[in-house]
Design goal:
Low-confidence stretches: none
Order of helices and strands: HHEEEEHEEHHE
CATH topology: Pnp Oxidase, Chain A
CATH class: Mainly Beta
Radius of gyration: 17 Å
Largest sheet: 7 strands, antiparallel
Number of helices: 5
Distance between the termini: 15 Å
Helix content: 25-40%
Mean pLDDT: 95
Length: 155
């Protein structure tokens, strides 16, 4: 299938729209023994980078502290001719500044519940996110390679 990959590759605009449409990313870090450690997280796009937040003491953070290499996959579709995805490999930047964690975490929380702003989450939601930000870090995935596919283009 020469040229097949190019035929299903998404444009930058299509990638951006696809990432805006989806909510969850599968993130792989490198475990202490070299085995991949995979987790699924809610994310936002910030200045072209995928961003998530997670507990500072989580296994994925321990892995990323030791080795910042990361792979991320956002995909959807059920039937073969519906499959779409974006695979990113790069380096993880761990954010430890509370204000930045709160900013990014708030964006993830709002997006996760389908709200349009923190105001929609109310005082309880705001308090919960502020408390969570004391226990969490944000992670910015700095892409080094991006691959994409949209099998709908094959039909």
């Amino acid at each position: 299938m020469a040229g097949g990959r190019d035929a299903v590759k998404m444009s930058e605009g299509e990638i951006s729209a696809f990432l805006d449409e989806n909510l969850k990313v599968q993130v792989a870090s490198v475990g202490k023994d070299g085995a991949p450690h995979l987790s699924t997280l809610f994310y936002v796009v910030d200045d072209g980078n995928l961003v998530f937040w997670t507990y500072a003491r989580s296994q994925k953070i321990r892995n990323l502290e030791r080795d910042p290499r990361v792979s991320a996959l956002v995909e959807d579709g059920i039937d073969y001719f519906e499959l779409r995805g974006v695979s990113i490999t790069g380096r993880a930047e761990i954010v430890r500044d509370y204000d930045r964690i709160l900013e990014l975490g708030s964006r993830v929380a709002v997006r996760m519940v389908g709200a349009s702003s923190m105001d929609e989450l109310g005082e309880l939601g705001r308090t919960t996110v502020e408390k969570q930000a004391t226990k969490r870090v944000a992670v910015i995935i700095r892409p080094e390679h991006v691959a994409s596919w949209d099998h709908r283009k094959m039909v």
